[in-house]
Every structure is written in C-alpha cells, then in structure tokens.
C-alpha cells in the first residue's frame, strides 16, 4: 500500500459481488493506475492547526479556482469573532440574535498566505446549499428565516463579495441539496417540508417548484431522515437521488422515475441521521459508462427519538456500494473500522476515499452526539479495504466540514453543535480552528516518484479535445510506462455531503521522454532529487457536459499511486 499509515486495517466483512469488484478494478487498471508497492515507510500522515481563529465556524466550505476557500455559518448566531470590513454593520429586524450586526458570518481564506478576509452575507445561510458554475461563480441557495428563498452568488476574486437575490427560489429551501446540470442550471432538491425540486436560474419568470413524491415517501414523520438528499449526476444524464434508505434515478426534465433501486439496509443515512455519499471515480476505460455510488455511516432507526431522551446509540458502521448503471444492481455492504455519524466523504487525488469528522454515537442536531470520531479512515475502492489513519485532537461534530486542496492536503473546519456561538461551558464548544490534514502521499518519502506538472497546452480544453501535458519526474524514479490523469470537481460541502464532487479517470497516451533538466522547485531545497526527466503525455478531455458540467476542475498526474500537485483547468 505504498506506506499508507495503518494503525488498523480491515477487510470488508462482506465482499463485493465479483462482477462489481471487477468492474472497478478493470476500470482503474485500464486507466493506468498502478497499485502502490508495499513499503515500510511507516505512519506518515499528519495534522497541523493552520488557523487558530478563523472568526467564524466553517459550517459550509468550498474551494474556488483562485485557491481561495469560502466558508460561512449563519447570521442568527450573534457576534462572531471577526468584524465586517470598513466598519459596516448589517441591519436586519428579522435577525434572531442581533438587529444591528457588525460581525462577519462568512470569510475567504487564502490558502497560500493563510490570510482571512471578512465577507458580507446579509441573510441567513443556515443549512443552505451550493454549486459552482462555468464562469467560476458559486451559486448558493436557501437557508433559514430571511434567507430561505434567497439565491446568492460570489466569485473567487480578490475583492469579490456576496451578491444576494431575494425571492429567487419558488419556495423556502432549508437542508436542500444542489446539483449542477449539463445545461448550467442548478437543480435544488428537497429541504424541510419541501417534497419537490426546482431550477436556478429560472427558464421563465414565475417558474415554480416541481412535485417530487419520492421525498414524501422517504419522510419519517417528526424526524425526516431525508434532508440533504444525496444527489449524483449519472452518466446517462439522469439524477441519482438517495433519501433515508431508498434511492431512484430521476428524469428531472419530466419528473419521471426511471429506475427504483433496492433499499440500503441498516438504518437511515440522511439528516438528521447523517451519513455521507460519493460517486466513485468514472473511467474512460469503460467509455465512462460505469457509475457506482458509495454511502457510509448514518444512524439506526429510532436514534433521533433516543437522543432526545438522552440515549446515545452507536452510529452505523456500514458502507453500501451500488453500481447504478448495472442492469440488476444490488447494494454490497462493507463494515468500517468504527461507527460514524456526521462523517464527510472526500475523493482523494489517488481516487481513494477519505472518511473524516463525525461522532460514534447519536445523530446530527444541537448537542445530540457523543464520542467524537477523531481518526479518519482511508478506503481503497479497488481492494475494498479500510485503514484507520492518525487522529486529530479536535472534535469535529455537527456543522463540521472538509475539502480537498490543490496540493492534496485536506482542509478541516467547523463544528458547532450549539444553537449559537458557545466558546466556554458547552460540552463541545464552537470550533474556530482550521486544521490541515496531510495524507500519507504528501510525505517526503514519496517525492522520489512524485510527478510535477510543468505545462498544459490548453488550460480550457473543449469536450472530447486532446491536450498535451508536460510533466517531470526525478531521474531516480522508474520510467513512467503508465501515468494516470484524474480530473476532480471540488465540491460545496456542508452537513456531511460534498455536493457536486466527482472524479473522472481520463484517457491518455503513454508518456514519452522530452528532456532532462535541473529542478527549480522546493524539491531541491529539501535535499531530494534535483535532476528531473521531462515527459509528454496526450490527455483527452471528457466527451460531454453530462460527465463533466462546464467549469473549473483540478487535474492531477498519478505515478505509481503518488499524486502530483494539481493544476486548474477549465472544461467545456
């Protein structure tokens, strides 16, 4: 496993059907992903506190293509610990905490300089959702109180700030999910007491919400367990929607259910039982036709009622995988090393899955969880193995988030299981620290095989277009007879679901040697190999907007399982 740190590794207690496992193994192997050879590098992942006080708690987090991270919580929390710029104060008679509020509830973090800029959000963004569009602007929808029907936008530029469009949603959206579509609309699905969906922007004035009976069918009265439904855009152009324990394939144009999938056993997986979900990487090796969803964690039936009574049952310790493109798909269940509710699932540059944050008992909600799950878990979709990684020391419970950064590190923030800012006296205080988790592949021991992208012939390739990538490897590295190219859409993350996250394994040619040169990067400064071989590979962009809706993506070279720092490219 290439020295991936391991304090405990487990095989799944139940195995994938042979055809499902072979599907993914064949996809990845044909895409030139080499499994890392076993070494004895030892535990090499690490944690560090990047920001001691971000000013706000990162209930929502997303990465812009300008390498700025936008974070926000909610306006009705009261005074944060960072003031709005230029002495500005927000005046809102509907605010539940401060009618005159001079404090910021949104920030922008420059990950290169570690500097923070206060942003001005005017309406309540509590438990809202978002998606990035082609032009590099975030569309952000809903919230609570005066924010329920608001659409907000923001770019990633040095002076960009929130622009708000009141009454732009047909109905209030609270705990809904956003999915960007091939035509650059965003479908906004569900929300509290909203068994429907709608589109942003509207095709015509007065366009309303569209009934979605599936959400009513998956609603547990008095509990819900179907909020923040998991949505994934399928390669056939339909929308996979999972709520509670059930899932369907939705033709969002007509409102028709195309397919109904078997239920996932064990218990509810959506808010407030709050598991998480990813669409596993889709590969060019099968013509991008095989798609598989993975869902992990959640809470047993009755857990929310129990926590109200002070009974904190163990969370679910299972994951389910479903090949949604198979003619007769069935959930295949694996067992994690520990139970987890409110965990986040991220696709790493290597195509492995990181499960991070959350608790081992209880549910989402104010003070409704116990036993923070400090240790992230690494999951390999090819071998179906979990590995427990090095733990943090900071609880990350309700309203915590995590995002993958361009260098492959993980930014971790948030956690506020309280009804306001509570910095002292609470069982789990409001958390303003931002951590960086460095996965094993960032350790210096991997530098002798780490690729480094030098140039890309087109930073904005059209669909189906090939482009040339020049990359370097240390001379000491083995000749790269196989290098994989992973294309990653950074998500909007909140409430355990990274909306719009997806990865494609692109088609490419075998690299050819172009030149040898001396490194001018930090590799030389740390005493590693300084003589580099340059190579050229031809890479094919995704063929259409169904697979990759137009926008900014991170491109990563993978050599012997080790990722390069990623480059931004614009697809479509």
Automatic annotation (TrEMBL):
Q: Where is this region: Disordered?
A: 1-24
Residue ranges constituting the Glyoxal oxidase N-terminal domain according to the UniProt record: 59-441
Question: What InterPro entries does this protein map onto?
Answer: Gal_Oxase/kelch_b-propeller, Gal_Oxidase_central_sf, Glyoxal_oxidase_N, GO-like_E_set, Ig-like_fold, Ig_E-set
Key word DNA damage present in the record? no
A Pfam family of this chain: Glyoxal_oxid_N
Source organism, top-level taxon:
Eukaryota
The record, for SUPFAM superfamilies, names: E set domains, Galactose oxidase, central domain
UniProt domain Galactose oxidase-like Early set: residue ranges: 450-571
Q: What is the annotated signal peptide range for this record?
A: none
Ranges in coiled-coil conformation: none
Q: Where is the composition biased (Basic residues)?
A: 14-24
- Which keywords appear in this protein's UniProt record, sorted alphabetically? Signal
Protein name in UniProt: Glyoxal oxidase
Q: Which organism is it from?
A: Sphagnum jensenii
